[in-house]
Amino acid sequence: MRIVRVANFVAPRSGGLKTALRHLGAGYQAAGHESVLVIPGAKAADDQTEQGRVITLPGPQVPGVGGYRVLLDRRRLSATLRTLRPDRLEISDRTTLRWLGRWARRHDVPSMMVSHESLDGLLRLFGPASGRRIADVLNGRTAADHDRIVCTTRWAAREFERIGARNVMQVPLGVDLERFTPDRADPAMRSRWAGPDDVLLLHCGRLSPEKKPRRSLAALEGLRLQGVRAVLVVAGAGPLRNALQEEAAARGLPVRFLGHITDPLKVAALQASADVAIAPGPIETFGLSALETLASGTPVVVSSSSALPEVIGAAGVAAGGEGPAYVSAILELLSRPTDERRRAARAQAEKFPWPASAAGFLAAHDVRSTSGSDLVGPAETLGGDTGRAQVAGELG
Q: Would you tell me which CATH number, out of the four given (3.30.200.20, 3.30.420.40, 3.40.47.10, 3.40.50.2000), belongs to the domain 2-174+353-390?
């Protein structure tokens, strides 16, 4: 089975979408299927990788978003797809690529849209007062244009359930349990930023408005006002970095901005070395970075308005608002014995292996493994007691 995947807004260096695409493609290949990924880039390329064939088509940069590119040449993309002759088409962009659902229908190719973002949430943050009505209209068109919609959490699926879409499946993403492990904790790395009696906080993610990184600064400030010797390390780049650095300096906050870290093992060591991580984004539909942090043995404080409470379960704490609640949540986690909270974080992450995610996505495509590999079957249920994620079966 040839599964062709098309994605826009793939980060040039890293990011949750790029990580998910890589692991799912490798899972499809391991299951005996042919995976082909089509993405935008600065120039055309055609490479064989661990996730299968990766075709890069030229696409323009989107101004002000950190190097993201998009596939806008519909004629060239259509010609590429006709040449590839997909058996299944998987699409990861609900805005500029929604037209591919209609293309697939004209060519008798079953199509699947993966909802990596919350349109309802984005419009709620940045859109007009009528944002929910606009989201409902656009989501209705998305559901009508594709044979299947895949959402990674129950939270993400609700905007489709609200409009009565019947072709929605819930399939969680996963985590690399070998790369992200508590064993990567590095005392030497930790000592660069925190003293032996300091609390080391971590914010790991893109510094953009929808991620609400100022909440992490507010949490640090609130802890220090209560006499907690806390320091914050921020790993990630984005349009708000300069402003955040200036604000931290003006308020006298001990924050280290590391920018984008290219070495994934250094990221894993950083996540394993922190005491508590903060993932304050209010419209996250899954939160791969938070799950990777849990796998590293570090508990996470998340936004109660996002999908992350489903993912972290009892291994973390959800907080509302802009600052004070995050202080309370961090203190609650710190009150737990260190070994206990680290074991709970790792145990929660172990419920989300990538092979199970790949099996769920294949089930959504109505295909199975042809290689005899030991993938978790489509009836497997993941996610624990909080927000269990049903891998197979329609919602609603």
A: 3.40.50.2000
